[in-house]
Amino acid sequence: MKKWKQWHKITAIGVGLVALTGCNGNENNESASSSGDAIDDGSPVEFSIMANLHTAEVPDKKVQTLLEEATNTKLDIQWVPDSNYEERLNTAFATGSLPQAVYMKNQTTYEQFKDAIRDDQFWELGPYLDEFENLKNLKPEVVENTMVDGKMYALYQGRPLARSGLIYRKDWADNLGIDAPTNVEEFMEMARAFTEDDPDGNGKDDTFGLTDRNDLVYGAFKSVASWFGTPNGWGEQDGELLPEFMFDEYIDTLDYLKELHENGYMNQDFPVTSKPDQQALLKNGTAGMYVGSMGDVVSLYADASQNNPDLEFDVHNYVEGPDGEYNIWAIPGYGNLVIFPKSSVETEEELKGILSFYNQMMEPDNANLIFWGVEGEHYDVEEDQAVAIEDTQKTDREVKPYQSIEIGEAETNGRYLGKSNYEAKTKADELEIDNESYLVHDPTITLDSPTMQTHGERLQQIINDATYQYILGQTDLEGFEKAIETWKTQGGEDVINEINESYEQQ
Amino acid sequence: MESPLTVGKKQVLTKAERRNELWRKIKKNKWIYLMIAPGILYFFVYKYIPMYGLIIAFQDYKPYLGITGSEWVGFDHFRRLFADPDFWMIFRNTLVLFALQVCISFPVPIILALMLNELRNRAYQRTIQTVIYIPHFMSWVVIVSISYVMLTLDGGIINNILRSLQFDQINFLLNPDWFRPMYILQIIWREAGWGTIIFLAAIVAVDPQLYEAAKIDGANRIRQMWHITLPAIRSVIIVLLILKIGDVLELGFEHVYLLLNSSNREVAEIFDTYVYTAGLRQGQFSYSTAVGFFKGIVGLILVVFANWLAKKYGEEGIY
What is the 3-state secondary structure (H, E, C) of A243-270? Predict the structure, then answer.
């Protein structure tokens, strides 16, 4: 006991020491504050950016230097790997060390920041927009999708509204004499034939139809659900908005995929298959159908043709549901966004300096520079379109990372559209535009539900689990309905009410 | 000032005298105290000061308001945790996985160490030991990926073999019944070899004379193991077991998270994975902290209990 008492004292001394050395936790991060308004004295505007990096390495500085010269700025870009961006973003936010321009990565992360945006932690951009003639041109319908309580806080990075479709083995289809599927029965038939009719003609039972992965949105599920006429996220029924899984079409989709799975027409372990593994099955000639972003056909072909030069891919979008209609879900028109924290952008002058940089980024020359690189070095212009050089390693290292700081889209920032020498890619680009005639929008993009912000992940998980289990045959309709009840009691009921209240107020 | 009472021969000192006594001792051993100062400082700066952050478990913490500016909400986050219908499922899974670790993966290194100790050829023993502890240096991502490639229904080696032998294929990855065996086997595969190091070191320290005496008494090798080796390393085993119990709720987030999927959630969801989805991915720092706090308290109770139990049976314990 006595010994312990001594220790007690010693530790007390320790505490004293620590207290003396001082832990001033509340020192504000000295962010490189900009030298005010660039227009005044001609010295470059300095500011820091945090953006997500899609490549393995930090990019070469060449493009950045050219951009700095063209816009009279000095940029400090903090590249964070895309895979752990959310984590770093939350950490930077929690420790008060956000840079001056913060990219959000995607809509989901942006959703989480809405609370802080409402608490006036970020600059509202609406009032300044008129001073910048290029920023003014951002599409109003997309800007509206980024608004919080009807105010604009973010500059968006445009994305095609619907890129989903089917990528399939054209050579297999030709071998068996089948065409691209135009409705869900034909899709099922193609999956069957690719599984049972030996499409590669090697006499072995070593192929199947569809390769899918552990993603119900960007995998096959959501697109197939669209074909069946399922609403995008939420749909209206008797004047009330309800989540997609309460619609019969969602159950039809479940039954359809269950049949595909049960018959062995798709990979049996798809709920635990990662994207690289899913794509590997297509590249190595095991599977012949892939539902996802049609533009991926370029990279898929580049890899697949290395071990099988004879293989042919084709893309296809139009698949009718049982009701004879084709529908495809749409994203809100933006992928990434950039917002400006008040903690690091301290004055209106500073904000204007940064906005002026983004305004200049929407001039064709600068927009081309960050998207395509240097003309003659990274791309050539043919018929008013950009053709990237063959050396993808060079463009990945020097240009591709900068694409993630782009603002607007080709239409608004005037950059070249791409042209590919690979036929299937050109077709994919055309089909993306064709998809725009069949879009299904999510009516809740601008609606709010506090319960969703707190419990959204868990609630979604209940439904996702039940969805996978149904397709695998581990639960039935009764089990799925029970999951919906669980969803309701754990906060789903509140979500429905909040969403509908928010809907009526609009 | 009353005169010091004498009880027997021992003097009972007043407070002031005791303090002087302490200072005298500190002065006398100042170099020793100086030596432990860095250690104490380390624990203070890195283990105790961060505990200040536990405050946010009782707040609606908003990063830009800071700990001082955030609103107090009392035990709301704890209420939410205990009210979550999945709470008991998570609690049960956590305890079951912990029990499996203590009962199955904890004894394996001891058995391995005893077996290695029986090998006559030292070089051979060293080689085996090195080979079995290498997996410890692989990350869970690698180990789980290797398992996936071997066990998947879509061309996994194991299922291909089963198929060629005309057996039914086994759905290892998406069957809740297979989760626990997979979890434990992977732990054994990765950690068993590494765990033998400490036990072997303890075995080597046993006095050889004891074995000689036992041999003269006619004990065979099994008997020697039972009556000499095991009792000699008993205290090491107990200390390690208590430490292991302290980690009751640290089952390795990464490992479980990698194995977790929609089909096995009912047996695989544990506190760590729950915190990740419910807390961190939604940026709910306060709630995550509250769950972590709860875990810590449960761990503390278990360690104190295990230590008390060890002491009761006349063992050393950890304090």
Answer: EHHHCHHHHHHHHHHHHHHHCCCECCCH
8 Å CB contact of B154 and A267 = yes
Quick check: A15 pLDDT over 80? Answer: no
Distance, in angstroms, between B74 CA and closest chain A CA?
18
Classify the phi-psi angles of A289: left when phi > 0, otherwise alpha if psi is within -120 to 50, otherwise beta: beta
User: How many whole angstroms separate alpha carbon A260 and alpha carbon A439?
Assistant: 25
Contact B174 A94 (CB under 8 A): no
- Does B184 touch chain A if contact means CB atoms closer than 8 Å? no
3-class state of residue B229 by DSSP? helix
- Residue A287, beta-bridge partner list: A208
Amino acid at A258: K
Residue B34 burial (CB count, 10 A): 9
Q: How far does Cα A295 stand from its chain's mean position?
A: 14
pLDDT of residue A420: 85
- What secondary structure, in 3-state letters, does A404-451 show? HHCCECHHHHCCCEECCCCHHHHHHHHHHHHHCCCEECCCCCCCCCHH
Of the partner residues A9, A94, A467, the one whose CB lies closest to the CB of residue B63: A94
Residues A347 and A35 sit within 8 Å (Cβ to Cβ): no
With contact defined as beta carbons under 8 Å apart, do B138 and B189 qualify? no
Contact list in B for residue A90 (CB cut-off 8 A) is: 280, 283
Cβ contact A201:A347 at 8 Å: no
> Chain B: nearest CA to A15, how far in angstroms?
7
Does pTM top 0.85 for this prediction?
no
Nearest residue to A314 (alpha-carbon basis) of A435, A176, A175, A166 = A166
Helix (H, G, I), strand (E, B) or coil at A339: strand
Least trusted range by pLDDT, from A102-106, B197-201, B306-310: B306-310
Stretch (H or E) spanning B101? none
A168 and A428 Cβ atoms separated by less than 8 Å: no
CA separation for the pair B152, B169 (Å, rounded): 10
Q: Give the span between the Cα atoms of A184 and A256, in whole angstroms.
A: 9
Q: Roughly how many angstroms between the first and final C-alpha of chain A, as a whole number?
A: 69
C-alpha distances out from residue B81 to A1, A55, A503, B100, B288, Å: 38, 39, 31, 25, 10
Please indicate if any CB of chain A lies within 8 Å of the CB of B285.
Answer: yes
Q: What is the DSSP string of A131-197?
A: G-TTGGGS-HHHHHHH-BTTB---EEEE--S--EEEEEEHHHHHHHT-PPPSBHHHHHHHHHHHHHS
Cβ-nearest to A116 among B25, B64, B154: B64
pLDDT digits (tens, 9 = 90+) for B54-93: 898 999 888 778 888 888 999 999 998 998 888 999 999 9
Q: Which residues pair with B288 in a beta bridge?
A: none
- Sequence letter at residue A184: V
With tokens 């004499």, the residue in question is A177
Percentage of chain A lying above the pLDDT 70 cut: 92
CA pseudo-torsion sign A48, A49, A55, A59: negative
Q: Is B41's CB within 8 Å of A17's CB? A: yes
Beta bridge partners of A314: A168
Task: Tally C-beta pairs within 8 A across A and B.
Answer: 97
> For chain B, where are the alpha helices, taking DSSP H only?
15-28, 30-43, 66-69, 76-83, 87-100, 107-117, 122-133, 140-151, 157-164, 176-204, 208-216, 221-224, 230-246, 253-259, 265-268, 271-274, 285-312
List chain B residues with CB under 8 Å of A269. Answer: 152-154, 173-174
> SS3 of A465, please?
helix
In chain B, positions 104-143, which contact chain A (CB-CB < 8 Å)? none
Q: How far, in Å, CA of A480 to CA of A491, rounded?
A: 17
Please enumerate in sequence order all residues whose Cβ is within 8 A of that of B56, keeping only pairs 6 or more positions apart, or say none.
Answer: B67, B70, B285, B286, B289
Starting at the edge strand that comes first in sequence, how are the strands of the sheet with A45-53 ordered? A73-81, A45-53, A101-103, A334-339, A155-158
